[in-house]
Fold these 3 entries.
Entry 1:
Amino acid sequence: MLSHSPLPANTPAGFADPEASKPDDWDEDAPREILDEEAEKPEGWLDDEPEEIDDPGQLYMLQLVRSFMHT
């Protein structure tokens, strides 16, 4: 699959858009995410799911199986 890509599979760490720039008011110390204190989880949503999945491939299979179960 990667053999047909125009980009190398492992791009160098410095690979960036030379024209890109951050806004003047960019805050490097700002948190990457902002916690929504008012957010609520829908009832029953992911209650029975494990916190972590040992093999990420399992996630794909789980989603695939569930999609067939709900059709």
Entry 2:
Amino acid sequence: MAKLTGVRINRFKAKGRDYAEADGAGLYLRVSRNGAKTFTYRYRNPQGRDTWLAMGNYPAMSLHDARKQAAEYSLQRKQGIDPAEQVQAEQAAKQAQAEERALIPTFENITRSYYQRVIARRRRRPEQFLWAMEKYVLPYIGTVRVSELSRGQVAEVINRMVDNGTPVIANRVLAMIKSVTRYAAEQGHAAMDPAAGLTRVSAGGKEKSRDRVLSREENKALLLALDADTMASRRLSPQVRTALLWLLLTGQRIGETLAAEWAHIKDGIWHIPADNTKSERAHLVHLTPQLTALLDELRPLTGTQRYIFASPNESEKPINRFTVERALKRLLTDGTLNMPSFTPHDLRRTVVTRLSDLGVAPHVIEKLVNHRMAGVMGIYNRSEYLPEREEAIELWNRYLQDLTGAGDNVVFLARR
């Protein structure tokens, strides 16, 4: 009987039925009808029944580790231990330990309880809360009992973020931490709220109302930096790159953009459902040739997924706004964009301001970006100005295209 080798294992193919190849000493490689390969230990249990005990899938489990595990099972049998029963007992013990740990009121357990009971029920995009906590907070204080959590430990988490150059995100995360610690105190897991005394002043600082608008030259520089052939652009995932371009081309909010689904694209229009909008009103955005080119670029990557800007790591979810914000910050700090700092939301303000400069009527701009109209107009004017909005977004996209000197080449934004 020839022993298994890496070369032999790689040659085993699906045959439309399950089959097994022996290595010796009870070790087999089972190949399923769909081609999945699993190391298995075969033996007769104390009752005399032929038993196949799955050990691990190849190549996640190496042949070396499979042989080592099979030898351990053989030793257990010599000691009168049934390997299958031993595995079940170990799994039951691990499950009991996990359940016991889940009852301990650590900051992580309280965070997840708060997420399930409050955040997941009330927020439209609750995953952003959990993503931020798992990235910035739980690795540092997740195992601390919430009753023993100190203000200094929370401050250390926030100070780390500020020192890393993300003061605005630090303010957001501090608010998240405080919501969890308040919840812990309300639920009786802590006598007091350890984060109550921390403020934005001691975190990322007071945030001023922004008035940043990109100039003609800055818009051009951003477009050229996001061109598919630049080194800076190649450091971004296609989803992040096209999301930044989409924000500049449409003027829509980042949350509404990242939540866009392929099912929302119909007959040359991006349909934004009311559940995805800040105004809680459904919204329509006409697709220009430039926007269509971006969709064509993403379709081979995410066209089979739910979201247009699907995460490369978790395809069932869209990319996170923090990911886009960090990518933009890198472009601004590594010398790619030599201009004052700006945020994704500043692109929305830029679209509104520059459309006004181009002579587009204020009420059309307000409708284009799904703002609530003020005063009498908001009460009595129910017109959606769809033809005017289509003209406005086409004007804006042509304006941006002209900045790059691309002429009529509408795919100037897409990968060539």
Entry 3:
Amino acid sequence: MNSININIKTVDIKTGLRKLNSKWTAEMSSDLIYHSGFGSDVERQLIIAIRKEKRVKTIKNLLNNI
């Protein structure tokens, strides 16, 4: 009977969460609506979230420059 020697070693894998960044475009909106079947309600919620994020970023930039 043949035998095989196998060496097994372990490797640590580190994971983490990070924010996904992207640029919002009209094409992305159209694609989202077309592929998801959602209507303008989802688009409106995304636009509100993007505006809020931009406002927060602007305020942080202003505070950092003081």
